[in-house]
Amino acid sequence: MEANCAFYQKWRCALCPDISTLASSAQRTSFKKSCDLFRCSFTNLSLYTSLSKGVANGGMAQFQEMMRQQLESSMHDELEKLLDTTTGAEREVSKKDFEGFKNLFHRFLQVKGPSVEWIKIQRPPEDSIQPYDKIAARGLPDNVANSLNKLVVVKLNGGLGTSMGCKGPKSLISVRNENTFLDLTVQQIEHLNKTYNTDVPLVLMNSFNTDEDTKKILQKYTHHRVKIHTFNQSRYPRVNKESLLPVSTNLSMNGQNAEGWYPPGHGDIYASFYNSGLLDQLIEQGKEYIFVSNIDNLGATVDLHILHHLVSQPNGKRCEFVMEVTDKTRADVKGGTLIQYEGKLRLLEIAQVPKAHVDEFKSVSKFKIFNTNNLWISLPAIKRLQEQNAMDMEIIVNPKTLDGGQNVIQLETAVGAAIKCFDNALGINVPRSRFLPVKTTSDLLLVMSNLYSLEAGSLTMSPKREFPTTPHVKLGSSFTKVQEYLIRFESIPDMLELDHLTVSGDVTFGKNVSLKGTVIIIANHGDRIDIPAGSMLENKIVSGNLRILDH
Q: 386 among the known binding-site residues?
């Protein structure tokens, strides 16, 4: 290994120029990638001889290509070893997953620079992002059922509730009147099917983290008027950041080995859906479009106007992909946006933005909209692109540190990034009400409050609220976990006239509290504040120590 390190240092100096002499960011990125590949190659002793010969006989490009080939070969061998640790159905499923991973890994090694050149970015043409009002103004057909019977609702259900202190799938957290995210989704679709006498199915894309628990819960919906299908997204191996080889030693999910696997982002939906056989099954049933959204976005309900717009287009001009976008606020500056790039509508994520342009990307004045991840996609188009191997999505390299301190990377893709692959893609600028994600207990407080009313699984803003925007709520670390949050509220406060709420420290709320305007409550370390039952706080700052004891 010492000889390897000396060889690495020697050839790094000989072949790689000083980074400061490289003019463009693309050159600098390519240089860094080359040196990373170079370093990774030399963690494997078996590569030493062949690579040293390659450097002696050829130039840098040939050397890079040899390194890539060697890394792919090593990865292939390691994956085969993993497959040999199991048999039967698990081996076949994993083999199919690994084919997808090898394709992603190959593309990862081929990347030579930034996925976008900033100078080529253009604003989308006006007709490529339509206002929702224009779509809705066309009205609905007499027979809405015909459109609905061509639709499938797909919910992304791969995430756990760990960030909110809950075990198991996030979709099983109670969010309103003891109803979970999944309960509300089923109620929404059942209401459509009963109202219009239709057969809109629900499809859940689970991950290996959520599949078992979700399937147990699905039994409770047996008598609901909704057909529910599931399929699993892939299971990919986490890769050692230094060697670029899998960290797992077998396919089991037990003990420390469980850390070696990950679900590769929601961009995996296309391949997993296709591989499951469910895509073909739904097409055979006459389904034409899927409406995809995150299961924790309570604003993502089936919109009949958008659906009608899709199915009413002439066959030759059928829109194959609609992305719902909405106006950006200062809270959304990191959200992906739509751009025109090389003649195609394309999703630009903050991870793709060169550091020098991050502030420009976050600007509300230049990039005015962001992606809600509510997507309407043609089923036949997914089938066509999968069979042509033409689904091209930018790779997201997500660095992680395992519990033992080992640095790994996981390669992911985002479902919206495929917009550039579809014909006649369109953005629709929808009302903010269609983006109501619940990522934290601060979000949970909003949806549990009287700001919203619940009917047939759908939340709508109360007509008593004078402003169309939701209040800005920021709860401190004492409220992070759902169980702790629930203990701190005897009942959810009246928030109809609230603009801003910040709570920090050991704070509890009694029954029938009313919050109006801007309210800031701060209990310093060691202090506790109990907001008395029946209190009305309007434009107030509360700090110090306020304790109410039972007697």
A: no
End-to-end CA, the chain:
73
Tell me: pLDDT of 30 over 80: no
Provide the pLDDT confidence category of residue 7 given band limits of 50, 70 and 90: very low
- Both tokens of residue 190? 């059942």
Q: Report the pLDDT averaged over residues 44-59.
A: 51
Q: Are strands 514-522 and 494-504 parallel, antiparallel or unpaired?
A: parallel
If one counts every other C-beta atom within 10 angstroms of the C-beta of residue 451, the result is 20
Instruction: List, by residue number, the catalytic residues.
Output: 439
296 is in an annotated binding site: yes
Higher pLDDT among residues 41 and 118, named by residue? 118
Matching residue, tokens 């304790």: 547
Chain segment 172-189, per-residue pLDDT in tens: 999 999 999 999 999 999
343 is in an annotated binding site: no
pTM (two decimals): 0.87
As a three-state string, the secondary structure of 396-430 is EEEEEECCCCCEEEEEECCHHHHHHHCCCCEEEEC
- Eight-class DSSP state of 234: P
pLDDT tier, 366 (very low <50, low <70, confident <90, very high otherwise): confident
